[in-house]
Amino acid sequence: MHGNVEVVVVGGGYGGVMAANRLARREGVSVTLVNRRPDFVERIRLHQLATGSDDAVEGFGEVLGGNVRLVVDAATRIDAAERRVSLAGGGTLAYDYLIYAVGSGAADPGVPGAAEFAHSVSDLEGARRLRSALAATPATAAVTVVGAGPTGIETAAELAELGRQVTLVCGSVLGPYLHARGRHPVARRLAELGVTVLEGPRARVTAVTRDTVRLGDGRELPSAVTIWTAGFRVPDLAARSGLRTDTEGRLLTDATLTSVDDVRIVAAGDAAAMKDRPFRMSCQAAVQLGAGAAATILRRIAGRTPAPVRLLFAGQCVSLGRNEGVTQFSYLDDRVNALHLSGRLGARVKEFACRFPLDQLASGARKASARASHGDGTARLEPPQPHHRTTPPSTR
User: Fold this and answer.
1) Which PANTHER family does the annotation name (predicted)?
2) How many beta carbons lie within 10 A of that of residue 387, not counting itself?
3) Is this model's pTM higher than 0.70 or not?
4) Residue 113 Cα distances to 59, 142, 226, 251, 324, angstroms
5) Which single residue of 321, 329, 339, 378 has CA 20 to 30 Å from 207?
6) Interior/surface letters 113-129, b for 16+ CB within 10 angstroms, e for the rest
7) How confident is the model over 323-355, as pLDDT tens digits?
Protein backbone atom coordinates (compact mmCIF):
# COMPACT_ATOMS: atom_id res chain seq x y z
CA MET A 1 0.00 0.00 0.00
CA HIS A 2 1.37 3.40 -0.97
CA GLY A 3 0.86 6.73 0.79
CA ASN A 4 -0.19 7.36 4.36
CA VAL A 5 -2.31 4.63 5.98
CA GLU A 6 -5.08 5.70 8.35
CA VAL A 7 -5.89 3.31 11.19
CA VAL A 8 -8.77 3.90 13.60
CA VAL A 9 -8.75 2.02 16.91
CA VAL A 10 -12.17 1.84 18.58
CA GLY A 11 -11.66 1.37 22.31
CA GLY A 12 -8.92 2.53 24.66
CA GLY A 13 -8.51 -0.46 26.95
CA TYR A 14 -5.48 -2.72 27.26
CA GLY A 15 -5.88 -4.24 23.79
CA GLY A 16 -6.69 -1.01 21.98
CA VAL A 17 -3.85 0.99 23.51
CA MET A 18 -1.34 -1.80 22.90
CA ALA A 19 -2.36 -1.96 19.23
CA ALA A 20 -2.32 1.83 18.78
CA ASN A 21 1.19 2.17 20.18
CA ARG A 22 2.54 -0.68 18.02
CA LEU A 23 1.04 0.83 14.88
CA ALA A 24 2.15 4.37 15.71
CA ARG A 25 5.79 3.27 15.64
CA ARG A 26 5.54 2.61 11.90
CA GLU A 27 6.40 5.40 9.43
CA GLY A 28 3.54 6.17 7.07
CA VAL A 29 0.85 5.01 9.52
CA SER A 30 -1.43 7.53 11.24
CA VAL A 31 -3.38 6.23 14.22
CA THR A 32 -6.57 7.60 15.77
CA LEU A 33 -7.88 6.10 19.00
CA VAL A 34 -11.55 6.60 19.89
CA ASN A 35 -12.46 6.23 23.56
CA ARG A 36 -15.47 7.51 25.45
CA ARG A 37 -13.43 8.49 28.50
CA PRO A 38 -10.50 10.95 28.66
CA ASP A 39 -8.48 8.60 30.89
CA PHE A 40 -7.23 5.02 30.68
CA VAL A 41 -9.04 2.72 33.12
CA GLU A 42 -7.10 0.02 34.99
CA ARG A 43 -10.05 -2.30 34.99
CA ILE A 44 -8.24 -4.93 37.06
CA ARG A 45 -8.11 -2.41 39.93
CA LEU A 46 -11.76 -1.34 39.96
CA HIS A 47 -12.46 -3.35 43.10
CA GLN A 48 -9.74 -1.23 44.75
CA LEU A 49 -11.43 1.96 43.59
CA ALA A 50 -14.63 0.83 45.30
CA THR A 51 -12.82 0.54 48.64
CA GLY A 52 -10.51 3.54 48.21
CA SER A 53 -7.10 1.85 47.94
CA ASP A 54 -6.55 2.97 44.30
CA ASP A 55 -8.21 5.30 41.81
CA ALA A 56 -7.90 2.78 38.93
CA VAL A 57 -7.23 5.42 36.25
CA GLU A 58 -4.14 6.64 34.44
CA GLY A 59 -3.80 9.60 32.10
CA PHE A 60 -3.55 8.65 28.43
CA GLY A 61 -0.47 10.84 28.32
CA GLU A 62 1.28 8.10 30.33
CA VAL A 63 0.26 5.08 28.24
CA LEU A 64 -0.50 6.36 24.72
CA GLY A 65 2.10 7.45 22.19
CA GLY A 66 2.48 11.16 21.53
CA ASN A 67 1.71 10.67 17.84
CA VAL A 68 -1.61 8.88 18.40
CA ARG A 69 -4.63 11.11 17.82
CA LEU A 70 -7.04 10.78 20.74
CA VAL A 71 -10.76 11.36 20.12
CA VAL A 72 -12.89 11.35 23.27
CA ASP A 73 -16.21 10.12 21.90
CA ALA A 74 -18.20 6.91 21.38
CA ALA A 75 -18.47 4.99 18.12
CA THR A 76 -22.09 4.36 17.13
CA ARG A 77 -21.71 2.55 13.80
CA ILE A 78 -19.05 1.10 11.52
CA ASP A 79 -19.74 1.48 7.79
CA ALA A 80 -17.47 -1.20 6.36
CA ALA A 81 -18.36 -0.45 2.74
CA GLU A 82 -17.41 3.23 3.07
CA ARG A 83 -14.70 2.60 5.69
CA ARG A 84 -16.11 5.14 8.08
CA VAL A 85 -16.92 5.22 11.79
CA SER A 86 -19.84 7.33 13.00
CA LEU A 87 -19.43 9.04 16.38
CA ALA A 88 -22.00 9.92 19.02
CA GLY A 89 -20.82 13.53 18.85
CA GLY A 90 -21.94 13.75 15.23
CA GLY A 91 -18.65 13.38 13.37
CA THR A 92 -17.20 10.54 11.33
CA LEU A 93 -13.73 9.09 10.93
CA ALA A 94 -12.42 7.54 7.72
CA TYR A 95 -10.03 4.60 7.90
CA ASP A 96 -7.95 2.27 5.78
CA TYR A 97 -7.92 -0.27 8.62
CA LEU A 98 -9.96 -0.46 11.82
CA ILE A 99 -9.17 -2.22 15.08
CA TYR A 100 -12.27 -3.28 16.97
CA ALA A 101 -11.33 -3.17 20.66
CA VAL A 102 -14.53 -2.11 22.41
CA GLY A 103 -14.00 -4.34 25.47
CA SER A 104 -16.73 -5.70 27.70
CA GLY A 105 -18.97 -4.70 30.59
CA ALA A 106 -21.42 -6.14 33.08
CA ALA A 107 -23.95 -8.61 31.71
CA ASP A 108 -27.67 -8.17 32.27
CA PRO A 109 -28.23 -10.20 35.46
CA GLY A 110 -31.57 -11.50 34.21
CA VAL A 111 -32.75 -11.65 37.82
CA PRO A 112 -35.71 -9.60 39.06
CA GLY A 113 -34.52 -6.44 40.82
CA ALA A 114 -30.81 -6.95 40.13
CA ALA A 115 -30.49 -4.30 37.42
CA GLU A 116 -32.31 -1.80 39.64
CA PHE A 117 -30.80 -2.48 43.06
CA ALA A 118 -27.43 -4.21 42.56
CA HIS A 119 -24.14 -2.40 41.94
CA SER A 120 -21.38 -3.36 39.51
CA VAL A 121 -17.58 -3.06 39.50
CA SER A 122 -17.14 -3.87 35.81
CA ASP A 123 -16.68 -0.27 34.67
CA LEU A 124 -15.41 3.01 36.08
CA GLU A 125 -18.79 4.64 36.58
CA GLY A 126 -20.23 1.59 38.32
CA ALA A 127 -17.26 1.30 40.67
CA ARG A 128 -17.55 4.98 41.58
CA ARG A 129 -21.26 4.63 42.30
CA LEU A 130 -20.51 1.62 44.49
CA ARG A 131 -17.90 3.59 46.41
CA SER A 132 -20.45 6.35 47.06
CA ALA A 133 -23.07 3.82 48.15
CA LEU A 134 -20.64 2.19 50.58
CA ALA A 135 -19.66 5.57 52.00
CA ALA A 136 -23.33 6.31 52.68
CA THR A 137 -23.89 2.94 54.41
CA PRO A 138 -22.99 2.16 58.04
CA ALA A 139 -19.87 0.00 58.37
CA THR A 140 -21.91 -2.61 60.26
CA ALA A 141 -24.49 -3.00 57.48
CA ALA A 142 -24.63 -6.29 55.57
CA VAL A 143 -23.04 -6.40 52.10
CA THR A 144 -23.70 -9.18 49.59
CA VAL A 145 -21.40 -9.98 46.66
CA VAL A 146 -22.89 -12.18 43.94
CA GLY A 147 -20.44 -14.16 41.79
CA ALA A 148 -17.53 -16.45 42.66
CA GLY A 149 -15.13 -15.45 39.88
CA PRO A 150 -12.03 -13.27 40.38
CA THR A 151 -13.99 -10.02 40.58
CA GLY A 152 -16.40 -11.36 43.18
CA ILE A 153 -13.67 -12.91 45.33
CA GLU A 154 -11.46 -9.83 45.19
CA THR A 155 -14.33 -7.46 45.96
CA ALA A 156 -15.54 -9.56 48.90
CA ALA A 157 -12.03 -9.80 50.38
CA GLU A 158 -11.33 -6.10 49.90
CA LEU A 159 -14.53 -5.12 51.70
CA ALA A 160 -14.12 -7.66 54.50
CA GLU A 161 -10.58 -6.44 55.17
CA LEU A 162 -12.12 -3.01 55.87
CA GLY A 163 -14.36 -4.59 58.49
CA ARG A 164 -17.51 -4.96 56.39
CA GLN A 165 -19.93 -7.84 57.02
CA VAL A 166 -19.75 -9.63 53.68
CA THR A 167 -21.61 -12.62 52.24
CA LEU A 168 -20.29 -14.09 48.98
CA VAL A 169 -22.97 -15.94 47.00
CA CYS A 170 -21.23 -18.31 44.62
CA GLY A 171 -24.14 -19.83 42.73
CA SER A 172 -22.18 -23.08 42.43
CA VAL A 173 -18.59 -23.44 43.69
CA LEU A 174 -16.07 -20.90 44.97
CA GLY A 175 -13.53 -20.04 42.26
CA PRO A 176 -14.70 -22.53 39.61
CA TYR A 177 -11.72 -21.63 37.40
CA LEU A 178 -9.23 -22.59 40.14
CA HIS A 179 -7.58 -25.96 40.65
CA ALA A 180 -8.93 -27.70 43.75
CA ARG A 181 -5.61 -27.12 45.52
CA GLY A 182 -5.64 -23.43 44.68
CA ARG A 183 -9.18 -23.10 45.98
CA HIS A 184 -8.23 -24.07 49.52
CA PRO A 185 -6.12 -20.97 50.39
CA VAL A 186 -8.81 -18.74 48.90
CA ALA A 187 -11.47 -20.30 51.14
CA ARG A 188 -9.14 -20.14 54.14
CA ARG A 189 -8.35 -16.46 53.68
CA LEU A 190 -12.00 -15.50 53.13
CA ALA A 191 -12.88 -17.34 56.35
CA GLU A 192 -10.13 -15.47 58.22
CA LEU A 193 -11.58 -12.18 56.96
CA GLY A 194 -15.05 -13.21 58.17
CA VAL A 195 -16.65 -13.61 54.73
CA THR A 196 -19.66 -15.94 54.70
CA VAL A 197 -19.37 -18.07 51.57
CA LEU A 198 -22.53 -19.70 50.19
CA GLU A 199 -21.97 -22.49 47.66
CA GLY A 200 -24.05 -25.16 45.97
CA PRO A 201 -27.00 -25.25 43.56
CA ARG A 202 -29.35 -23.73 46.12
CA ALA A 203 -27.08 -20.70 46.52
CA ARG A 204 -28.44 -19.03 43.43
CA VAL A 205 -29.97 -15.58 43.52
CA THR A 206 -33.58 -15.43 42.34
CA ALA A 207 -34.41 -11.82 43.25
CA VAL A 208 -32.84 -8.63 44.61
CA THR A 209 -34.65 -5.88 46.49
CA ARG A 210 -33.42 -2.65 47.98
CA ASP A 211 -32.36 -4.38 51.20
CA THR A 212 -32.48 -8.15 50.60
CA VAL A 213 -31.17 -10.92 48.35
CA ARG A 214 -33.45 -13.91 47.81
CA LEU A 215 -31.97 -17.36 47.11
CA GLY A 216 -33.34 -20.36 45.27
CA ASP A 217 -34.01 -22.29 48.47
CA GLY A 218 -36.21 -19.51 49.81
CA ARG A 219 -33.67 -17.86 52.10
CA GLU A 220 -33.61 -14.06 52.25
CA LEU A 221 -30.31 -12.39 53.08
CA PRO A 222 -30.33 -8.88 54.52
CA SER A 223 -28.23 -6.71 52.21
CA ALA A 224 -27.82 -2.95 52.51
CA VAL A 225 -25.48 -3.01 49.49
CA THR A 226 -25.62 -5.74 46.85
CA ILE A 227 -22.79 -6.10 44.30
CA TRP A 228 -23.30 -8.16 41.14
CA THR A 229 -20.10 -9.55 39.59
CA ALA A 230 -21.45 -12.56 37.68
CA GLY A 231 -21.08 -12.44 33.90
CA PHE A 232 -19.83 -10.06 31.23
CA ARG A 233 -21.20 -8.79 27.92
CA VAL A 234 -19.71 -6.95 24.98
CA PRO A 235 -21.16 -3.84 23.30
CA ASP A 236 -23.39 -4.51 20.29
CA LEU A 237 -21.51 -2.16 17.94
CA ALA A 238 -20.43 -5.01 15.62
CA ALA A 239 -23.92 -6.48 15.38
CA ARG A 240 -25.48 -3.03 14.83
CA SER A 241 -22.97 -2.47 12.04
CA GLY A 242 -23.95 -5.65 10.22
CA LEU A 243 -20.79 -7.60 11.12
CA ARG A 244 -21.00 -11.24 12.12
CA THR A 245 -20.61 -12.07 15.81
CA ASP A 246 -20.67 -15.14 18.02
CA THR A 247 -23.56 -15.91 20.38
CA GLU A 248 -22.09 -13.53 22.98
CA GLY A 249 -21.87 -10.63 20.52
CA ARG A 250 -18.10 -10.74 19.99
CA LEU A 251 -16.78 -9.97 16.51
CA LEU A 252 -16.05 -13.21 14.66
CA THR A 253 -12.51 -13.40 13.29
CA ASP A 254 -10.10 -15.85 11.71
CA ALA A 255 -6.84 -16.90 13.37
CA THR A 256 -5.20 -13.59 12.38
CA LEU A 257 -7.92 -11.63 14.25
CA THR A 258 -9.33 -10.41 10.92
CA SER A 259 -13.12 -10.07 10.69
CA VAL A 260 -14.70 -12.90 8.70
CA ASP A 261 -16.63 -10.18 6.84
CA ASP A 262 -13.95 -7.61 6.01
CA VAL A 263 -10.14 -7.83 5.78
CA ARG A 264 -9.90 -4.15 6.75
CA ILE A 265 -11.35 -4.81 10.21
CA VAL A 266 -9.23 -6.53 12.88
CA ALA A 267 -10.34 -7.26 16.45
CA ALA A 268 -8.54 -7.21 19.80
CA GLY A 269 -9.46 -7.73 23.44
CA ASP A 270 -12.65 -9.05 25.02
CA ALA A 271 -14.79 -8.20 21.98
CA ALA A 272 -12.82 -10.54 19.67
CA ALA A 273 -13.80 -14.17 19.03
CA MET A 274 -11.58 -16.42 16.91
CA LYS A 275 -13.65 -19.09 15.18
CA ASP A 276 -13.09 -22.48 16.85
CA ARG A 277 -10.40 -21.00 19.14
CA PRO A 278 -12.18 -19.57 22.20
CA PHE A 279 -10.12 -17.73 24.80
CA ARG A 280 -10.84 -16.27 28.19
CA MET A 281 -11.78 -12.59 28.50
CA SER A 282 -8.89 -11.10 30.46
CA CYS A 283 -6.21 -8.42 30.58
CA GLN A 284 -3.68 -11.20 29.97
CA ALA A 285 -5.33 -12.03 26.64
CA ALA A 286 -6.05 -8.41 25.69
CA VAL A 287 -2.43 -7.21 25.61
CA GLN A 288 -1.47 -10.19 23.43
CA LEU A 289 -4.44 -9.62 21.14
CA GLY A 290 -3.60 -5.94 20.81
CA ALA A 291 -0.07 -6.76 19.71
CA GLY A 292 -1.39 -9.47 17.39
CA ALA A 293 -3.95 -7.16 15.78
CA ALA A 294 -1.26 -4.56 15.09
CA ALA A 295 1.02 -7.23 13.60
CA THR A 296 -1.77 -8.38 11.26
CA ILE A 297 -2.32 -4.88 9.92
CA LEU A 298 1.39 -4.13 9.59
CA ARG A 299 1.90 -7.31 7.58
CA ARG A 300 -0.97 -6.40 5.25
CA ILE A 301 0.43 -2.89 4.78
CA ALA A 302 3.76 -4.47 3.84
CA GLY A 303 2.05 -6.78 1.36
CA ARG A 304 2.75 -9.88 3.43
CA THR A 305 0.41 -12.62 4.61
CA PRO A 306 -0.58 -12.19 8.29
CA ALA A 307 0.43 -14.96 10.68
CA PRO A 308 -2.02 -16.70 13.03
CA VAL A 309 -2.08 -15.15 16.49
CA ARG A 310 -1.16 -17.54 19.28
CA LEU A 311 -2.14 -16.78 22.86
CA LEU A 312 0.04 -18.03 25.71
CA PHE A 313 -1.25 -17.98 29.29
CA ALA A 314 0.68 -18.19 32.54
CA GLY A 315 -2.15 -18.40 35.07
CA GLN A 316 -4.47 -16.22 37.09
CA CYS A 317 -3.85 -14.00 40.11
CA VAL A 318 -6.43 -13.18 42.77
CA SER A 319 -5.95 -10.58 45.46
CA LEU A 320 -7.40 -11.37 48.89
CA GLY A 321 -7.21 -7.93 50.42
CA ARG A 322 -4.08 -5.81 50.45
CA ASN A 323 -1.71 -8.31 52.05
CA GLU A 324 -2.56 -11.75 50.70
CA GLY A 325 -3.36 -13.35 47.39
CA VAL A 326 -3.34 -16.54 45.36
CA THR A 327 -1.54 -17.08 42.08
CA GLN A 328 -2.97 -20.02 40.17
CA PHE A 329 -0.56 -21.24 37.49
CA SER A 330 -1.72 -22.82 34.24
CA TYR A 331 -0.46 -24.60 31.18
CA LEU A 332 0.18 -22.38 28.16
CA ASP A 333 -3.28 -23.19 26.79
CA ASP A 334 -4.88 -21.73 29.96
CA ARG A 335 -5.75 -25.08 31.58
CA VAL A 336 -5.01 -24.73 35.28
CA ASN A 337 -2.62 -27.07 37.07
CA ALA A 338 -2.00 -27.83 40.74
CA LEU A 339 0.83 -25.29 41.11
CA HIS A 340 -0.07 -22.16 43.04
CA LEU A 341 1.32 -19.53 45.39
CA SER A 342 -0.56 -18.04 48.31
CA GLY A 343 -0.19 -15.62 51.20
CA ARG A 344 2.06 -12.56 50.92
CA LEU A 345 4.02 -14.06 48.03
CA GLY A 346 0.77 -14.52 46.12
CA ALA A 347 -0.06 -10.88 46.83
CA ARG A 348 3.29 -9.70 45.49
CA VAL A 349 2.85 -11.71 42.30
CA LYS A 350 -0.66 -10.28 41.90
CA GLU A 351 0.66 -6.74 42.27
CA PHE A 352 3.34 -7.44 39.67
CA ALA A 353 0.66 -8.83 37.34
CA CYS A 354 -1.32 -5.60 37.71
CA ARG A 355 1.66 -3.31 37.15
CA PHE A 356 3.26 -5.24 34.30
CA PRO A 357 0.66 -4.54 31.57
CA LEU A 358 0.63 -0.84 32.49
CA ASP A 359 4.43 -0.80 32.23
CA GLN A 360 4.12 -2.50 28.83
CA LEU A 361 1.76 0.21 27.61
CA ALA A 362 3.97 2.99 28.97
CA SER A 363 6.98 1.46 27.23
CA GLY A 364 5.02 1.24 23.98
CA ALA A 365 3.98 4.87 24.35
CA ARG A 366 7.60 5.96 24.73
CA LYS A 367 8.64 4.03 21.61
CA ALA A 368 5.77 5.52 19.60
CA SER A 369 6.56 9.00 20.88
CA ALA A 370 10.20 8.56 19.88
CA ARG A 371 9.07 8.31 16.29
CA ALA A 372 6.96 11.44 16.75
CA SER A 373 9.96 13.34 18.09
CA HIS A 374 11.62 12.97 14.70
CA GLY A 375 8.80 14.99 13.18
CA ASP A 376 6.32 13.03 11.10
CA GLY A 377 3.60 15.66 10.99
CA THR A 378 1.17 13.72 13.18
CA ALA A 379 -0.60 15.48 16.04
CA ARG A 380 -3.22 14.73 18.65
CA LEU A 381 -6.73 16.08 18.30
CA GLU A 382 -6.93 16.54 22.08
CA PRO A 383 -3.63 16.28 23.95
CA PRO A 384 -4.34 14.25 27.10
CA GLN A 385 -3.17 15.76 30.34
CA PRO A 386 -0.95 13.79 32.76
CA HIS A 387 -3.06 12.21 35.46
CA HIS A 388 -2.17 12.61 39.11
CA ARG A 389 -3.44 10.02 41.58
CA THR A 390 -5.94 11.20 44.13
CA THR A 391 -5.49 8.10 46.30
CA PRO A 392 -2.29 6.32 47.31
CA PRO A 393 -1.16 3.51 45.01
CA SER A 394 -1.08 -0.05 46.30
CA THR A 395 1.88 -0.70 48.59
CA ARG A 396 1.91 -4.50 48.26
Assistant:
1) 64 KDA MITOCHONDRIAL NADH DEHYDROGENASE (EUROFUNG), APOPTOSIS-INDUCING FACTOR 1
2) 17
3) yes
4) 36, 18, 11, 30, 34
5) 321
6) bbeebbbbbbbbebbbe
7) 999 999 999 988 999 999 999 999 999 999 989
